[in-house]
Amino acid sequence: MGGFAGQLVSAVLWLSSAAVSTWASHRLGMIVLFLGGFLIYPLTQLVNRLMGRAGKLRDGNALNGLATQVAFTLPLNLPLVLGATLYREEWFYPAFMVALGAHYLPFVFLYGMRQFAVLTAVLVGGGVLLAMYGPDIFALGGWLTAAVLLIFALLGRSVALREESATAQAATPAR
């Protein structure tokens, strides 16, 4: 589905974290994003199953190992997010945006979807610009990332549905 389920789950997580950071505490909002990130994969699988989708590459696909490795790129970058946050708390969301954006880059090859290159550029560029020139609003990066992820979820779903429709029409014999 063009990454719809994963983007949707991630958007809800970032939205939740930004809301908690805005209306409760910055620290609790950070904890929501950090710990909630460990639930993205199982929740994505649940959403995929509820939509009647497999939610994984076909068995025997040579790229299954790469998918597993790509899944670990974000957690392995969290020490950098922590370091940036310890230096300047307002850099939590921008640093996380950069790490998340870098995590999406291999999806271009893995899933054959160029939209992930654009998502990478928006998140990495947005994180850097927000950290360097953005207003001093702690959760702004959280709110922006939630919106970007939701937009890309809907965009990816739209592209996937169009491709499925075109494939189905091509497979239907002419009368």
Overview of the structural elements:
The chain is mostly helical. The chain has one domain (4-55, 64-171). It has 9 helices and no strands. Helix 5 (73-87) packs antiparallel against helix 6 and helix 6 (92-104) packs parallel to helix 9 (140-171). The two termini are 30 Å apart. The mean pLDDT is 86.
- Tell me the fraction of residues in β-strands, as a range: under 5%
N- and C-termini, Cα separation = 30 Å
Rg calc:
17 Å
Model regions low in confidence, pLDDT < 50 over at least 5 residues = none
Query: Which class best fits the helix and strand makeup?
Result: mainly alpha
Helix content percent band: over 70%
Total discrete domains: 1
Largest sheet, described in full?
A: none
- Tally of DSSP helical segments: 9
Average pLDDT figure: 86
Broad shape: elongated
H/E series? HHHHHHHHH
What's the total number of strands?
0
